[in-house]
Amino acid sequence: MSDTPVIGVLALQGDVREHLVALAAADAVARPVRRPEELAEVDGLVLPGGESTTISKLAILFGVMEPLRARVRAGMPVYGTCAGMIMLADKILDPRSGQETVGGIDMIVRRNAFGRQNESFEAAVEVRGVEGAPVEGVFIRAPWVESVGAGAEVLAEHEGHIVAVRQGNALATSFHPELTGDHRVHSLFVDMVRANRGPESL
């Protein structure tokens, strides 16, 4: 088996192409995932930014929500950015009607916490596990994490608010590293996926 992990990007809505590019740059085979049979073929999955309510409803419509929950519970590595962070939260502080999450991280998330689209900003963020200079984080209608449970590790904060969290094989950031050309967060995730595949993949 090749050491190159196959990582999907949930391609229902949001900045899918940018994640595919970033994953490829981080030495993964990247492919879009829309259906359960495509999900079954990947070693890990990225949940991109976009509109979390829309992604939730489309995931149910495409029949991928339950298989995704099952694979996350079984330990498949998953990485959510912005709306993807909301999707990985066990609880949303102010969910929209009909909004469901995949879950996987014991955290409470507040939607659009950093403000509306016209209040988007960039900021340097120190992320634990990412070596070198701070990561340039792009925050677009970004959530933040109100609180985490005992099993979740805080990887980064911005102005006193939690913006990056990891719990086991689940990783989430409020910001969009895929929009900056800095692929170190994606490399961190690729390493998580590679480690999860075990020594037989080497």
Helix content: 25-40%
Overall structural class, as computed from helix and strand content, comes to alpha/beta
Residue ranges: pLDDT <50 for 5 or more in a row?
none
Shape category:
globular
Biggest pleated sheet: 7 strands, mixed
Order of helices and strands: EHEHEHHEHEEEEEEEEH
Radius of gyration: 15 Å
User: What amount of the residues lies in strands?
Assistant: 25-35%
What topology, given as strand order, has the largest sheet?
Answer: 2-1-3-4-12-11-10
Count up the helices.
6
Between the first and last Cα atoms, what is the distance in angstroms? 7 Å
The pLDDT mean sits at 93
Strand segment count: 12
Task: Explain what this protein looks like in three dimensions.
There is one protein chain. The chain has 202 residues and is an alpha/beta fold. Helix content is 26%, strand content 30%. It is built from six helices and twelve strands. A seven-stranded mixed beta sheet has the order 2-1-3-4-12-11-10. It has a three-stranded mixed beta sheet with strand order 5-6-9. The chain has a two-stranded antiparallel ribbon with strand order 7-8. The longest helix is centred in the C-terminal third of the chain and has 14 residues. The relative contact order is 0.19. The mean pLDDT is 93.
